[in-house]
């Protein structure tokens, strides 16, 4: 078996809450291959950001901690790595960009210094060489007047420019895997397209894997090779991007796809999935999606289905009793 | 930055003008005739008239102000009613002990207060935080005059390490500065803790960690500078209160400073000296606020560039 770039297995992350603890991530499995873009999709609060922070081990200063599972990056289990070695990987082979470009840069430090920090740290460059590299990176992400902008402060830049700076920063040490947590959510639609194009071209140039966290299916269609859909801290469906849109298996995924408004269709009301994501401390007993599911059966309330392969398809999984029924029927008829 | 600093400096001028008017009016705001008050109860009318003329109180108010200002600008603050000495000379001999005392108190209070605050925030809800909190709350609760007396009793009387008062050696300043700085240190410790905790939750701190920065770089370079912006405000305000505190500390430790001079001149109703001290304290407040404003500019590029 070939080694995946990133392999997450049985990852669980707990948050201390009111004396007890709740699982924000409850046993997540997925993998990313070299040069592949995996989309991690789901509503707010489904645990996708916590998953990414767990991979980066950036849960410090949150009440959360990884309680089970492994995160293998090029074969090394990051969960077990001492902090000192983890630090050598962060910002180096494994980089991350965040949702909020407006607040993710330090307001009192010049752009140049913030860019140079990881370069000096991981690539061992001196001050001057790091600055040159920083300017080079800024040019690479399409920032005009890069040699002047390195001496600016974040508040002098627009949101789109700041996100470009964040991308330049993340890419500066040529990471093998980039985790992008809703990189375009806070930006204008026109800027979103620019940033997506930029990420696409950079990814191809550098042959880098990417974990793209988003709730925007448009972004998924634009960038991803494969998609993992999360609900209530669990993976509910896994598919190639084509399969996902053509033939979604899990009712939740169908709901997500249907809730995207279509241009040609005239509708009075926008489609939505009824109900809300359940509170982490009050999870339903069986399938976590059952209370909102239109196909709910008795079995769904009694027992949680497992994430099982969809018959006959590679890297195609669904966590639904319906899929398992279909699998069984498919098996009988064959 | 230059423009910002200039703006702040120019902004001080009208403030100083208002202060000078208020201080000038001080003599006229005292109930009754100041000349009569100064002369005493059994003074003759001639004596009173003499004092009135000597102080220029018989001139129209605006003329008196012009007179007062021109004297002030040439460094003449009049003569002490009690001793007849030039007030300027009296102040000159008293200003250094007070300056040293306030400076030393502020310096150690800032240093230790910040240190306790940062350590408490970084080790939140663990033992260093509890120790820091305990130290800060004790420091805040202890009244200055009591602390001063206890310190004298232990370190001067029992152990004999420091003199009980006066300003003969550098050692004389140690106990008074501890006494004067204690409250501010505690305040700064609490304040920098909460400000640091707030900063540590910011997105850019996470960015710093995601870049693989060492924790001390994240805290020292990324968090501390941002939380200092808030701490500077409190420190500036507290500095003003130091002046009030110095009156008490100078009395307890018999330090011949401005605070003691104020107490003495109030006791003797030495109005010209009180007037001069009011001017000095008010100006000092304004200067400290100016310094705080300039520090904002140094710490926060947003302020520096938006002006």
TrEMBL record, chain A:
Gene3D superfamilies: P-loop containing nucleotide triphosphate hydrolases (3.40.50.300). GO terms for cellular component: plasma membrane. GO terms for molecular function: ATP binding; ATP hydrolysis activity. GO terms for biological process: peptide transport. CDD domains: ABC_NikE_OppD_transporters. Residues 6-257 form the ABC transporter domain. It is found in: Cell membrane. Coiled coil: none annotated. InterPro entries: AAA+_ATPase, ABC_Ni/Peptide_Import, ABC_transporter-like_ATP-bd, ABC_transporter-like_CS, Oligopep_ABC_C, P-loop_NTPase. It is a peripheral membrane protein. It comes from the Bacteria. Pfam families: ABC_tran, oligo_HPY. Belongs to the ABC transporter superfamily. This is ABC transporter ATP-binding protein. It comes from Paenibacillus albidus.
């Amino acid at each position: 078996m070939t080694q995946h770039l990133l392999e997450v297995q049985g990852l669980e992350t707990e948050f201390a809450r009111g004396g007890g603890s709740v699982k924000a991530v409850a046993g997540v499995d997925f993998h990313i291959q070299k040069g592949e873009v995996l989309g991690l999709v789901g509503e707010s609060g489904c645990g996708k950001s916590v998953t990414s922070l767990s991979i980066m081990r950036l849960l410090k200063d949150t009440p959360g901690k990884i309680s089970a599972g492994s995160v293998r990056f090029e074969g090394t289990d990051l969960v077990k790595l001492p902090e000192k070695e983890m630090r050598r990987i962060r910002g180096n082979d494994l980089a991350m960009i965040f949702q909020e470009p407006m607040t993710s840069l330090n307001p009192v430090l010049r752009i140049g210094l913030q860019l140079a920090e990881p370069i000096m740290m991981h690539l061992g460059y001196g001050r001057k060489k790091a600055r040159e590299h920083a300017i080079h990176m800024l040019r690479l992400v399409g920032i005009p007047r890069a040699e002047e902008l390195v001496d600016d402060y974040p508040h002098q830049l627009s949101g789109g420019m700041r996100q470009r700076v964040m991308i330049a920063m993340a890419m500066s040490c040529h990471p093998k895997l980039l985790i992008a947590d809703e990189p375009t959510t806070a930006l204008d639609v026109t800027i979103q397209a620019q940033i997506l194009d930029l990420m696409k071209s950079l990814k191809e140039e550098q042959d880098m894997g990417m974990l793209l966290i988003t709730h925007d299916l448009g972004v998924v269609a634009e960038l991803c090779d494969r998609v993992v859909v999360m609900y209530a801290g669990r993976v509910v469906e896994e598919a190639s991007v084509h399969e996902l849109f053509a033939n979604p298996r899990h009712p939740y995924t169908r709901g997500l796809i249907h809730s995207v408004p279509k241009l040609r269709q005239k509708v009075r009301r926008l489609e939505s999935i009824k109900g809300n994501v359940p509170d982490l401390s009050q999870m339903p007993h069986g399938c976590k999606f059952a209370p909102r599911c239109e196909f709910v059966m008795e079995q769904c309330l009694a027992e949680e289905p497992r994430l099982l392969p969809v018959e006959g398809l590679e890297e195609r999984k669904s966590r639904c009793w319906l899929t398992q029924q279909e699998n069984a029927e498919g098996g009988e008829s064959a | 930055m230059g423009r910002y600093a200039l703006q702040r400096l120019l902004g001080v001028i009208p403030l100083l003008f208002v202060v000078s008017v208020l201080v000038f009016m001080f003599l006229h705001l005292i109930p009754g005739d100041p000349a009569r008050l100064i002369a005493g109860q059994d003074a003759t009318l001639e004596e009173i008239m003499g004092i009135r003329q000597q102080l220029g109180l018989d001139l129209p108010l605006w003329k008196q102000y012009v007179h007062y200002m021109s004297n002030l600008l040439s460094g003449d603050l009049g003569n002490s009613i009690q001793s007849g000495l030039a007030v300027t000379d009296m102040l000159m001999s008293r200003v250094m002990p007070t300056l040293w005392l306030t400076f030393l108190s502020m310096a150690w209070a800032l240093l230790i207060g910040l240190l306790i605050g940062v350590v408490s925030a970084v080790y939140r809800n663990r033992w260093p935080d509890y120790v820091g909190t305990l130290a800060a709350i004790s420091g805040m609760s202890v009244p200055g005059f009591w602390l001063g007396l206890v310190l004298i009793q232990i370190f001067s009387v029992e152990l004999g390490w420091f003199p009980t008062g006066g300003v003969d050696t550098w050692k004389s300043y140690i106990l008074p500065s501890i006494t004067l700085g204690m409250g501010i240190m505690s305040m700064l410790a609490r304040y920098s803790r909460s400000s640091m905790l707030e900063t540590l939750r910011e997105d850019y701190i996470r960015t710093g960690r995601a870049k693989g920065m060492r924790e001390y770089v994240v805290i020292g370079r990324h968090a501390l500078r941002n939380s200092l912006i808030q701490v500077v405000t409190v420190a500036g305000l507290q500095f003003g209160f130091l002046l009030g505190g110095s009156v008490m500390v100078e009395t307890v430790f018999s330090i011949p400073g401005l605070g003691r001079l104020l107490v003495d001149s109030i006791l003797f109703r030495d109005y010209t000296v009180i007037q001069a001290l009011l001017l000095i304290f008010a100006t000092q407040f304004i200067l400290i606020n100016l310094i705080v404003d300039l520090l904002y500019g140094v710490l926060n590029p947003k302020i520096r560039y938006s002006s």
